[in-house]
Predict the 3D structure of the following.
Amino acid sequence: MLIQPTPPGNGPGDRMLSKIESIRSRLPANLRTEHWYNDWQHTVFVILFDNLMRAIREDAGRVLCERLLDKLTVYLFVHFVCEEEGMAWAADQGHFEAEELRRHQRVHVQVLEAWRGGVQQPFKGGELARRELGDRVEDFFQAILRHIEAFDQISYGARSGRSADAIRSEIAHLSRSGLPLSPNMKGAIAVVDLCD
């Protein structure tokens, strides 16, 4: 019996790329950096924020909201470490200015402090009613979208001036780095512990 070749567009890799593009399509076009690793992670942010906001709106209970908030917290750390690793590698290759990396890192610290002080700690301390939690999460989500446009697009995205080859090389480096790419991957909590 002869094995029939898989028609183009029907192989396992094609199905995976289709799923990735389907997920990525949830990210508004103006936020797509064309750095597919980070676009995928930004899309997961959109999904996680959406899940948390829906749980808050539907009054799904404190336990579920806390679990979703914790997952989002871990994801913030994981994503920022991946971004910074990619930018550090690009700086070593001469594709990125070291000062821009330091500036981006300072902004990441500010974002994490705003999340911790404005949302995470007050919620865990029982200081936020459901409506105020929803307002703060929505405000933070909007701040993340502004961060992508103001910083990510310029640092490594569509307005960075970096070549497609330079971005592909950075993505290849990240894929070999062993960094967790989601809050569910082995090592994700260790990233938070290291950064905390």
Observations:
- The two ends are 59 Å apart (CA to CA).
- Confidence is low (pLDDT under 50) at residues 1-6.
- The longest helix spans residues 62-92.
